[in-house]
Amino acid sequence: MNIATYFTYPIFQRALIACILAGGVISLVGIVIVVLHLTTIRFALMHTALLGSAAAIVLSLPPVWGALFAIAVTAWLMGPLSDKLKVDTGVSGALFMTGSLALAFFFFYQAGIPAMEAFDVFSGNILSLTKADVISLSVVSVTILILVICFYRELQLVLYNEDLALTLGIQSKLVRNIMLLSCGMAIGVVMRLVGALLVDAIILLPALGALQLGSSLATVLVITSLFGLISTVLGLLIALKLNWPLGVTITLTGVVVLLLITFYRKLREHIRRK
Question: What is the DSSP annotation of the chain?
Fold first, then answer.
């Protein structure tokens, strides 16, 4: 089948829209995660997603709703809890990770919930996206874009030095907490696309590549968006052309793009030294 023919069907149209939004906009939160050293946070959010999924099943609600709600609450509370306990955000993330996992299995035991039903929240399938999923992805994407545009200066200062931002009159802790919430919601919607195990392909890889090339936050944001689009859209097209698994192909495309960026940077530095 010709690739263009695929996009005459709604499921592939939704997949393409999801790839554009995820790669072009959602990937921007990866900059925050990498620069603030919050890579371990995603594990805490995924574990709380499991807890939310289990609670939703107990209440006879869709597991995905519970997962997204739990992620949002956790992402918002993580920053204030770190401030209260005077510990690094990664430490409070570990607390949420272990506590939510224990509570999730407690729910499984007390309510007789089949654990695998809750674990379904970790398995993403971009071709199973509904209109509601695309709307959710669009809302999160627009929110992230608005936050980046409206709070660019504050974001730049907090990413550079949180203490310096505070001395300049910026509510750095509030900005950080909003960024954490944005990261949480981004991880939640991306899990629906490629699954929990492949979230890094969209969230982290484009940012890692951009940070190697960009010299300012503005250029890093643009490059991240560009590389995110290349990874997701090109990965989707390759998967359809070769009949490969979509999530895996998108991930592998992101890995290849990152390797090419790293090779280019090393080559450029080698030429300059000469």
Answer: --HHHHTTSHHHHHHHHHHHHHHHTGGGHHHHHHHTT-TTHHHHHHHHHHHHHHHHHHTTS-HHHHHHHHHHHHHHHHHHHHHHHT--HHHHHHHHHHHHHHHHHHHHHHHT--HHHHHGGG---GGG--HHHHHHHHHHHHHHHHHHHHTHHHHHHHHH-HHHHHHTT--HHHHHHHHHHHHHHHHHHHHHHH-GGGHHHHHTHHHHHHHHH-SSHHHHHHHHHHHHHHHHHHHHHHHHHHT--HHHHHHHHHHHHHHHHHHHHHHHHHHHH-
Note whether 32 and 89 are within 8 A (CB). no
The average pLDDT across 22-51 equals 84
Q: What is the pLDDT of residues 187-228, one digit of tens each?
A: 878 877 777 667 888 889 999 999 999 888 899 999 999 999
Break the chain into its structural domains and give their ranges: 3-265
What is the Cα 89 distance to its own chain's centre? Answer: 17
CATH class of 3-265: mainly alpha
Lookup result for tokens 């990261």: 183
Residue with more model confidence, 226 or 74: 226
When the pLDDT of each residue in the chain is averaged and rounded to a whole number, the result is 82
Question: In this predicted structure, which of 48-62, 224-238, 249-263 has the lowest mean pLDDT?
Answer: 48-62
* pLDDT for residue 13: 92
